[in-house]
Every structure is written in structure tokens, then in C-alpha cells.
Amino acid sequence: MPLAFLSKRFVAAVVLASFVLLFGFSSYASADELPAAPQLEAQSAILMDAESGQILFQHNADEARPPASMSKMMTEFLVSMAVKQGRLSWDDKVTVGENAAKQIGSRILLAEGDQHTIRELYIALAVYSANDATVQLAEEVSGSEEEFAKLMNETAVEMGMTQSHFINSTGLDRADMPEKFRPTSIEGETTMSAKDAGILALRIIKDDPEFLETSKLQEYKFRPRDKEPMKNWNWMLGSNKDNATLRKFAYEGVDGLKTGHTTRAGQNFTGTALRDGTRLIAVVMGVPGTTEQGKRFLETARLFDYGFKSFEKKTIIEAKASVPEYETLKVKKGKSTTVGVVTATDFTILIPKGVAVEPVVQEVKPTEDPLVAPIAQGDKVGTVTYKYKDPSTQEEKTATIDLIASEEVNKGSWWRLLFRAIGNFFSNLFQGIVDLF
């Protein structure tokens, strides 16, 4: 082989090595390459942005599975809504009935005839996942647990939870319910998909953010006479960093939401974490192992790590930006025949680091065509719809943003409008003559 050729190869290798030493390799080989997704020991899972609902990761996310106590998120939501609507009060004192007293599993050992406030029962539900407290709350809302389950199903449909079905307020299997209180008008077992659990969690965070103040409690003493307080089953709470036993599960920013476990369901968890202004929702279902092993929390931590470390918020459409080819819209009866328009708000999504997203204008729709003067600066004058490809799911998405006037257009004087009309008449007449030939 010629010496000159070897020299060229040697020089090229040295130059390449120098670039690697100085700058390192890029995290991603191209703008379309995504960060490696986590490998999970879960039958299904999803990771979502809690602000927009954007999906960052999913695995069998539409598969309907037994959620166990994660279904109590719907109970929590409906109880809170009943309070907000004035149908219940947190300070209402209620008497425990037979159904609640006969519940099994995680419970606060309510006896028939006991009296407690709605708030006390709600905390027992949120912190300790107490089945007896859950059932009593359901009966307070709807009169019976079966009627409450119907409300759960109606609400699931309204929320767009397409793979969910509830037969009770707790998530217990039918066989584990007190026989006398098993539903007769609702068939099957309770099921929910990871995606539906994420949708429900998103709704709770948006409509009932106060819930997180309850779900993040590490413990709560239900009765003054109780020797020990209830311990929160959510071992991922960021506050557990100082707990010697649970420190390895604690995750900075976690303040909710709900665990779930039965033999049929496996280990389930819907968690949410807030870091640096970004809140994520993670759901894992069907994780193997025992509750004591805490593997569902370790798997959730993998999802959170993936979301917080691999993604960044980027504004792909700026506020007060003009729209290419639609910088102005037509106006009639104004001093000017057009008005400048810009976007009213920006549009921000989570994007894998190193990946570019280029939105394309799909449609511009004026509030009326043409617009009619007078128009004040800042008035809404229409909408613009962009389309883009979601970098995580590769799905085609759209975003619609209001358009506002960037300038004022006063109403034209009758004299100006008259001469404009005359000019338009002759212009159209001349064009009609030209078209004849």
C-alpha cells in the first residue's frame, strides 16, 4: 500500500481522535434518534406530562388489567367533587354501616355504628388505602356502593377512559367483597388500563390539586387512642429520604398518588413527581414480586429518570409570532383593508434532548371572513392550527392557538369607504372586460 495513502489515513484518524477528546460524541446520532427507552418489569406502563397529557413512553398502555386499589383514585375524585359541589362537607360526621365494617384487606378497622367525619375517612382512603373507609365514603356519595360504581363508570366515559370498568369503590375482586353487597346490576371485574390510570391522575391533578396535600402525608393517626399512626403505602414520597427503611425508594418530587395490589393484579402504582417546574405522571401495572420488595417503586423510578433526564421543555411555537403567509387578515369597513395578526400564546412540549420538532401550519381560521372594523390591538381575530409529529410516539398531532390583532384598525369614514367601493367597482368592471377577451 502506498505510503502517501497510509499517511492520509493516519492524519484522518488523528483528527477524528482529537475531535472526540475535545468535544465528545453527541448524545444522539441524528435529530430523529430518541433516547433509549427504559426496560421495565411491568405488564403495562405509561409516562405522561401532567400539564399537557403528552405521552413520553408507553408499553401495553391500552391493555385493560386489574388495577386493585388504584381504582380508588376515582373514588377520591368523586368524593372531592361531591364536597366541592356542596353535596357533602368535610366536617360531616357519618355513621359506619355494615358493608364498610365487613371489608377485608387494608382497613382502619371500622366497626358498624362508629362515627367519623368525611375528612377523616378521606385521609384513611388516601394515605392507608383503607377499604372500609372507601366503601363508607362511596355510600355517602351515592347511597350504595353499587350505585357509586355506576357513577364511577359514567365518569370514566366522560373522562375518555376507554378501557376502564368498575364494579366497586375499592378495586377488590368480586369474590373478596361481602357476599351481601356484591353488585347484581354490574357484571365482570374491575379493570383499568395504564393509559386510563394516567388520564384519571391527570384529571385529579388539574381539577383537585389539593389532593396532593393529602396524598403526600407520610402518616396519619386516625384515632387518638391508636397506638400507631397509619403509614402511607407510597414509599416513593420524597419526604421518605430521611426514613432509614424507605430511603432507597424515596424519589425527589414525588407527592402522590396511589398504590394497588392483589394476587390477580400484581403490584401496581400510579405516581406523580414535580421537578424544576415539570410534573410527570407514571403508571406501572403487573409488576412481579411482593409488596415488601417494593419493586413497583423501583420500576416507577426508571420511568421518572427517563422523563426528567432525557426530555426538556421546548417552545415550538412562540407567542406574538406572525404566521408565515398569514401575516395579515382581511378587514372590511376599516381605515385599513388588512390587520396584522400574531399568536396569542406560545406552545411548549417535552422533547427528547437533541431532537428537533418543526410544526407546519395546517389551517388559519378567522373569527369571521372578512373581519369587520373596528378592531382593537389584542382582540382575538381567529385561530391557527399547526401539525407536528410527536417525537416520542411518532403520532401526528395538532395544536390550535388563538390569533390576536397586532395593531388597531379603526372604522373608516363614510367618505373613505365610498371611494374604496367606487374603486373596487371599476377594478372589478375592468377585470370583467379583460376576462371577455
UniProtKB/TrEMBL annotation:
Keyword Signal: yes
SUPFAM superfamilies cross-referenced by the UniProt entry: beta-lactamase/transpeptidase-like (SSF56601), Penicillin-binding protein associated domain (SSF69189)
Pfam families given in the database record: PBP5_C, Peptidase_S11
Enzyme class: hydrolase
UniProt catalytic activity: Preferential cleavage: (Ac)2-L-Lys-D-Ala-|-D-Ala. Also transpeptidation of peptidyl-alanyl moieties that are N-acyl substituents of D-alanine
GO MF assignments: carboxypeptidase activity
Record keywords, A-Z: Carboxypeptidase, Cell shape, Cell wall biogenesis/degradation, Hydrolase, Peptidoglycan synthesis, Protease, Signal
EC number: 3.4.16.4
Annotated signal peptide: 1-31
Domain Peptidase S11 D-Ala-D-Ala carboxypeptidase A C-terminal residue range list: 311-411
Pathway the protein contributes to: Cell wall biogenesis; peptidoglycan biosynthesis
Annotated family: Belongs to the peptidase S11 family.
Its job: Removes C-terminal D-alanyl residues from sugar-peptide cell wall precursors.
Protein name (Swiss-Prot/TrEMBL): serine-type D-Ala-D-Ala carboxypeptidase
Phylogenetic placement of the source organism: Bacteria, Bacillati, Bacillota, Bacilli, Bacillales
